[in-house]
Every structure is written in structure tokens, then in C-alpha cells.
Q: What sequence folds into this?
């Protein structure tokens, strides 16, 4: 009779027999199947880098400036993200690629222990370089994706020491941190990094501020983001942005106003003139109306049922919305990025967010009357004490239902009352970038005139 103690969890991962290997493969395949978004590799690499630099910032080191470098090589079909954050210790370096293993806590962007596994086994090349005061290493793992689909592999893929240089040369410039590079190929998803047709660093930066952790709901102005892009033709472009923050509409559009400013002005004029008032011109002919509401403000603006009140109590949602005069605003913005036809980076719908970053795909706003409005309204909802499901599949049903109900109430209530402030929709697509540049130039000229007034100081005049 068997009389020894044993740990079932340890037994699952120990041994080399076929049943153990197949069990591990199924676990990894289940993780990989939950990653279906085109930008998922960027999301995982970037959120790890942001967590790392924010962790190091807590050390309060004199002179430390957090930096995240994103290298996008369209010519050679690879990406690398490098940070000057905390770096790995030896045990972290050895274990962080294993499925469902994480050294992070629940206050970070990623802590489920699946993202690094996706990066390691969803691709056939990964290079990891790390350095910290106590430990440094550079290793690579090859053909892990092919191993998953091989019924009779010779052995498990190994992370082996890499004698070659770190792919991203920025790693050599930092005192500590991590650099991870992955390569795309015909067996990976996505396959081709250039498929999106985005070719410049400036446009990639805008896209990543919508699709990844660079689009922080609550900004961190201290992190410097650098993006370096090598296009298919070998042309290199570089863009920088100080701080991480979602790409709010007022950054890309002119003639916008907040909902709050409009309502305050209306209340002010009503008290003075009654209902027979006219809004000043700066509140009319708008391209967009936007605002950012706390959960307390949300409860003041719309009626909520008991279940919605419970979600507000538990998850304390923050809501950003942008209501544009025409869906052609989104078309024009997406076209300005050079993005592949049929692909929308920003569009009408609900973008759910947790852990201070957008997650998952847009959710349709279920409007019944004048349903076209659902494509004019872009809404970002951030929830505390809430996580997306494994990988990037989405949020729990109650969160999805809450977001759709609240979005509908905001569209049919507060926003419907300020539609009169929109510019007339002629059907022509607005030249957003040109209009924004012209308004910026006018503002610059006005500021120059005020700060440097023309002075005629000559006795021969007059």
C-alpha cells in the first residue's frame, strides 16, 4: 500500500512523461486561445514595462527618470520594449514565463501570470535581457510556438544564454531594467507587423495611446515614452511623449467644449435672461462635446437602478465620453494614421478599462431611437476592483450590462440636450488636423501679440 505524502500541485509539473507534457501544453494553449486582439503583444510588453518603471519610482532614487522605449521594426517583423525599471532577480527571470506564475500584486496592470506565457509560447523567438544590482542575464527561446503544435517534440523549448547583443541597443544605455523582443512569422498571430499599414513613429504613438497601457485613464506625467519605427523601406522615425495618458479627443480636434462648460454657461445665462438666451459663439458649431465624470458625478447626472448603484459602490467607475457631430470625424482620424482600410483605431462605442488601461474591444451602445448616434459617441469606462477575463476576452457580464445601460442613459439624456451645440453636418469629412493646426497657429499669434505688442517709438512718427 502506498504510504508516502505527496503534493498534487507539484506532481502536475514534475516529471517528463508524456501525460505531464500534454497537460502543460493544454494549459498553455488555453492561455494563447484567449489572446485574440491584434495589439495584444504590444499590450503585454508595454504593461510589464510600465509596472516596472513605476515600481522603481517608489524607491525614490535621486535623479531617476522612468523611460519606456518601444522599438517597432517593420522591415524585420519584430518588436522590442525596453524599460529602465526595477529589472529581474534570478528567480523572477527563471520563472516569469511559466503559465499562471506572477510576482506581481493586484495593484499592478498585469498580475494573472498569463501575459508572459503568451509572449513566450505564442511566438518562435523571444529574447529577454535584464540587469539589476544583484543579477544580469540575456537569454532567448526559439520555436516555442512550433513546439506547441508538435505531437512528438524532441524536448521542451529552453531559454538559453544568448551571446548576441540585445536587440534593442537602448538597453546598453540604462543602468538597470528589462528588454524583451519578439519576432512575428507565418505561424504566429498576428503574422505580419506591417499589416496595419502604420509606418511612422508619431502615428504608432497615437495608436498605442488608444490600444495599450500608454492610454492611462489616470495619467502619470513622469514617464517618458520613446517610439522608434523602422519602416518596410528602412526609413527610421522617432517620436517621444512625456507622460502616459489616453488620447483624449481635444488633442486631435479643434472647436470642442466640455459638457460641464456648456451647462454652466447655460445655467448662468438662464438666471440672467430666462429661457430667451443665446449661447456665445465658442459654444456653438462644435466638432465634439466631451467630459470626464467621476462615479459621484455619474449618480448626479442620470438615474440608476439598484444593481447599477451596487456596481458604482463596488467598482467606482470613471467615465470619459466624446460625442462628435459626425462619424466622419472618426474616419478622418483613422485615415490620418495611414491605418489599413477597414480598420478603426478610434470609433463610436464603449471602451472598457481596468488597472488604469483600456482592455478588450469596443462594446456597441444599444440605442433604439436615432441609432446612428451610437457611432458618434466614444465612451471610456474605467472600473476599480475589476479585472478582464483570462487574456483579453473581456469583462464580466454585469460590467458589460452596466456599461451599455449607462452609455444609453447618457446618450439619451444629458448629451441629447446639448446636440444643438454641434456644427451642421454637411456630409463632408472635416479636415481635422488642418483645422487644429490653424487654430493652434491663431492662438500662438494672439499670445505673441499680447506678450510682444507692437510699439511705435520714433519722434518722426505723427
A:
Amino acid at each position: 500500500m502506498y504510504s508516502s505524502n505527496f503534493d498534487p500541485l507539484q506532481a502536475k509539473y514534475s516529471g517528463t512523461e508524456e501525460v505531464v507534457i500534454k497537460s502543460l501544453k493544454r494549459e498553455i494553449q488555453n492561455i494563447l486561445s484567449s489572446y485574440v486582439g491584434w495589439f495584444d503583444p504590444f499590450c503585454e510588453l508595454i504593461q510589464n514595462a510600465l509596472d516596472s518603471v513605476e515600481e522603481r519610482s517608489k524607491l525614490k532614487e535621486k535623479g531617476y527618470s522612468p523611460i519606456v522605449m518601444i522599438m517597432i521594426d517593420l522591415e524585420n517583423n519584430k518588436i522590442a520594449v525596453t524599460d529602465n525599471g526595477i529589472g529581474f532577480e534570478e528567480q523572477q527571470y527563471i520563472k516569469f514565463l511559466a503559465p499562471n506564475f506572477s510576482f506581481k500584486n493586484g495593484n499592478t496592470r498585469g498580475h494573472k501570470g498569463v501575459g508572459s506565457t503568451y509572449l513566450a509560447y505564442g511566438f518562435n523567438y523571444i529574447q529577454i535581457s535584464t540587469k539589476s544590482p544583484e543579477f544580469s542575464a540575456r537569454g532567448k527561446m526559439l520555436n516555442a510556438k512550433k513546439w506547441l503544435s508538435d505531437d512528438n517534440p524532441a524536448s521542451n523549448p529552453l531559454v538559453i544564454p544568448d551571446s548576441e547583443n540585445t536587440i534593442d541597443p537602448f538597453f546598453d544605455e540604462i543602468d538597470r531594467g528589462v528588454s524583451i523582443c519578439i519576432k512575428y512569422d507565418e505561424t504566429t498571430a498576428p503574422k505580419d507587423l506591417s499589416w496595419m499599414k502604420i509606418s511612422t513613429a508619431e502615428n504608432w504613438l497615437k495608436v498605442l495611446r488608444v490600444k495599450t497601457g500608454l492610454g492611462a485613464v489616470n495619467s502619470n506625467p513622469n514617464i517618458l515614452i520613446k517610439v522608434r519605427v523602422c519602416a518596410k523601406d528602412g526609413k527610421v522615425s522617432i517620436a517621444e511623449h512625456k507622460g502616459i495618458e489616453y488620447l483624449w479627443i481635444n488633442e486631435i480636434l479643434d472647436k470642442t467644449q466640455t459638457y460641464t462648460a456648456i451647462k454652466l454657461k447655460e445655467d448662468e445665462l438662464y438666471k440672467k435672461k430666462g429661457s430667451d438666451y443665446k449661447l456665445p459663439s465658442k459654444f456653438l458649431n462644435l466638432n465634439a462635446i466631451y467630459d470626464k465624470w467621476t462615479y459621484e458625478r455619474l449618480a448626479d447626472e442620470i438615474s440608476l437602478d439598484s444593481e447599477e448603484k451596487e456596481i458604482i459602490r463596488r467598482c467606482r467607475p470613471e467615465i470619459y465620453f466624446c460625442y462628435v457631430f459626425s462619424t466622419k470625424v472618426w474616419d478622418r482620424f483613422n485615415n490620418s494614421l495611414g491605418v489599413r482600410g477597414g480598420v478603426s483605431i478610434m470609433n463610436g462605442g464603449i471602451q472598457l478599462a481596468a488597472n488604469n488601461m483600456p482592455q478588450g474591444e469596443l462594446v456597441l451602445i444599444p440605442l433604439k431611437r436615432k441609432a446612428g448616434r451610437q457611432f458618434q459617441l466614444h465612451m471610456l469606462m474605467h472600473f476599480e476592483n475589476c479585472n478582464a477575463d483570462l487574456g483579453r476576452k473581456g469583462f464580466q457580464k454585469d460590467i458589460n450590462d452596466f456599461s451599455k445601460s449607462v452609455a444609453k442613459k447618457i446618450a439619451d439624456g444629458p448629451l441629447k440636450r446639448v446636440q444643438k451645440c454641434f456644427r451642421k453636418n454637411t456630409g463632408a469629412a472635416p479636415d481635422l488636423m488642418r483645422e487644429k493646426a490653424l487654430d493652434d497657429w491663431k492662438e500662438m499669434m494672439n499670445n505673441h501679440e499680447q506678450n510682444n505688442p507692437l510699439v511705435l517709438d520714433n519722434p518722426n512718427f505723427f
